[in-house]
Amino acid sequence: MSKNILFVTYKLQSYRIPIFNLIAEDNGINLTVAHSSKRSENKENKFDEVIINFKKIGKFTYYDKEFNELVGQFDAVVCMFYLFNLSFLKLALRRKVKLIFWGIGVRASYNARFDSPTFMNNIRYFLARRSDAMLFYSDYARNKYIKKGIAADKLFVMHNTVEVLPLEKNVVRDNILFIGSLYKQKKIFELLESYKNALGDFDGKPKRLHIIGKGAEFDRIKEWIGKYKLENHIVLHGAIFEEARLKELFSSAIACISPGQAGLSVLKSFGYGVPFITYEHAITGGERLNITNNGNGILFKDFKQLDTIILEIFKDPNKFIKMGDNAKVFYDNHRTPMIMANGFIDAINYVNA
């Protein structure tokens, strides 16, 4: 018999929709996604949607009593692991349905290193013990919770990923790529300076740098490109959301470089056969852990190394194209949307066994 499952989040992200559709295709799950954003316009979605708005008190959020009424209609509820949502905390203490928390599981922010020490970990472990199961983005978090004495059989992993389009064979790779919101924390100007330095040290035809994204630094980047007269070498695209266009740009990329952050762009790059280059302590929600240094990408220890890495891309692109082949194999074998969806399905089957 199929189980009625409620997934609760603040916003229905477009990149999550393919994952939810795969989950909803499972014969044992009737999936409803409750969120506080605009209803999806995709009429082919296989899951139901419920719009439920939250309220705020300072940094805390909560739902009205209609939330409890909604939850009571389901066999299990999957909540994002938001520590400041009072309604989620209340469910952990008292409920009549099965409860699963889904999230990174450790500290992750623009202002601190991944899994840096924090008192909030004590709350995380408490909630994990109170839950019927946990879903993490990575094995790293699962192993950490096991070491804290939380039962391993209730801890599951949904390896964070994104959907990509099929990749043609024999594509011509001749560019360098950056993709992401243009914020100072991404270290975009460190990338620009290193690219400029590599240009000065290279006598041949350099690879163009394509920058995809919008954000607070967009105008400053545009001014910087003009100041150094690099319009023929650096293309500032702005935001691109059409997957077919993104596929074109990734298919022509030798490498994707994001010095300061390694998020879902790591998986997007891997899916299109592109190695990912970032700082070994870059901001991440755990996606950086997918990178094997000099295997499917590069984790540099010092920003001064970035000049040399870009110069090496100019001189020996085949080295990085081979890394991209490794990245594609890793994605296909370990990080497809179906693999991510199966982690969710396994957790649901566990709590409903």
From TrEMBL:
GO terms for molecular function: glycosyltransferase activity. Coiled coil: none annotated. Pfam families: Glycos_transf_1. Residues 174-328 form the Glycosyl transferase family domain. It comes from the Bacteria. Gene3D superfamilies: Glycogen Phosphorylase B. This is Glycosyltransferase. It comes from Flagellimonas ochracea.
